[in-house]
Write a structure and sequence with these properties.
Shape: elongated
Number of strands: 6
Largest sheet: 6 strands, antiparallel
Strand order of the largest sheet: 1-6-2-3-4-5
Helix content: 25-40%
Structural class: alpha+beta
Distance between the termini: 64 Å
Strand content: 5-15%
CATH topology of the largest domain: endopeptidase fold (from Nostoc punctiforme)
Length: about 260
């Protein structure tokens, strides 16, 4: 047998082994992705603006938001809501059509022309529109996009809890620009309890969600809660306050 004939099988074997290692590494990474983690990370962008065609890090459209969040975990999804409607099985398993009974945290909800991320609280985190930006504003069952939807369990994601099965908290630092100049604000928040809307002695994403919902007039805050929520002290409760609370919470490692 000549030297060339010996080399060729060896090269082919090395290529096969290398590809096997690559695929194994990808599978191992995917197995570590939990739906609860996806939701926790998605919530760090509450209050960010909506922009048509944008896919982060400072603004998003609906599919750009889903793309950006899953991309952070090494999962490639399309930028374009139509792709989820045309071929949902290309990105995962359809576990529901017009029903949220099987939906779990981290599943993608695909309507005609819109997508979002389902949470264990039965809500949807989404880049909604130009008016509201990234919000967790609606219970999924009351979503204005209606009942014509797919629930897609994305390949490589371990589903989180369903409605009534709360997710465990996960700590994340947002990937956008490094936040600076917050030291004085953190001292002020600590001293005055500013931002701690729910009164649990921590400034967290839960507080920011309450602020967002109050800004959308879905609930009323008490006088003390309003005083805590108005972080910017402009006499209003809005998404700017929620964003400040989220960033402060990230610095305090309480997300």
């Amino acid at each position: 047998m000549t030297l060339k004939r010996i080399k060729l099988p060896c090269v082919l074997l090395c290529c096969v082994l290398l590809l096997g290692c690559v695929f194994h590494a990808r599978e191992a990474h995917a197995e570590d992705v939990r739906g609860d983690d996806i939701v926790a990370y998605a919530r760090t962008f509450l209050g960010y603006p909506y922009e048509s065609g944008a896919f982060g890090p400072d603004a998003f459209d609906c599919s750009g938001f889903v793309y950006f969040v899953f991309k952070h975990f090494g999962i490639e999804l399309p930028h374009g809501s139509k792709y989820f409607r045309e071929d949902p099985e290309a990105y995962g398993t359809v576990v529901g059509r017009g029903s949220y009974a099987n939906a779990r945290a981290g599943d993608v909800i695909s309507w005609e022309g819109h997508v979002g991320i389902y949470t264990a609280d039965g809500t949807v985190v989404e880049a909604l529109n130009h008016k509201y930006g990234v919000v967790e504003r609606f219970e999924a069952e009351k979503h204005p996009s209606g009942r014509d939807f797919f629930v897609i369990r994305v390949n490589g994601v371990i589903p989180g809890g369903g409605r009534g099965e709360p997710s465990e908290p996960t700590t994340y630092t947002p990937p956008h620009e490094e936040i600076t100049g917050f030291e004085d604000e953190l001292i002020d928040i600590s001293a005055r309890r500013r931002g701690d809307v729910n009164g649990d002695d921590k400034v967290t994403a839960k507080d920011a969600r309450l602020v967002l919902r109050a800004a959308a007039r879905l609930l009323r805050l008490t006088e003390n809660e309003e005083a805590a929520a108005d972080v910017t002290r402009d006499g209003r409760i809005n998404t700017r306050d929620a964003r400040m609370i989220l960033r402060a919470a990230a610095r305090l490692d309480t997300l």
